[in-house]
Write a structure and sequence with these properties.
138 residues; mainly alpha; elongated
């Protein structure tokens, strides 16, 4: 089985989910290292930052699964699919903030208000690229 068969077959949605997870991890690492360089977060509150990132991860991907973001085939998407992604990520971010406050591990809004929109923009950009590559190749 070659890469073209994998991407065209039943594994496409799993690969798309894995790619989104990798994007989230990369953005999380970039945010954390940038905040260390700017002295916003120090090593002692790494546990709280990591816990908040974990909550954000679970709420974002949980909301995407519940909203059916990974059910559609992204090369045929319409505006409604992008709006559904934006709404699910926005609701998930608000839920993550509330959960973090309820668990008393909240480290600040900047984590949520920077990471979530960047992750959403990166995800939407990857979908646009997917569509462009598909149209170019077919």
């Amino acid at each position: 089985m070659n890469i073209k068969q994998i991407l065209a077959g039943k594994y496409r949605k799993i690969i798309l989910f894995a790619f989104d997870c990798c994007l989230f991890v990369a953005i999380s690492c970039a945010f954390y290292f940038a905040s260390i360089l700017l002295n916003h977060h120090t090593g002692e509150n790494f546990t709280y930052v990591f816990a908040n990132v974990g909550i954000l991860f679970l709420t974002i991907f949980g909301a995407r699964i519940i909203c059916g973001i990974y059910r559609s085939v992204w090369r045929y998407t319409r505006t409604l699919s992008y709006l559904k992604l934006i709404v699910s990520d926005s609701i998930a971010t608000v839920m993550a903030v509330v959960i973090s406050m309820l668990l008393n591990i909240f480290v600040g809004l900047e984590l949520f208000l920077i990471m979530a929109p960047i992750n959403m923009i990166a995800t939407i950009s990857s979908r646009f690229c997917y569509r462009l590559i598909y149209k170019y190749r077919h």
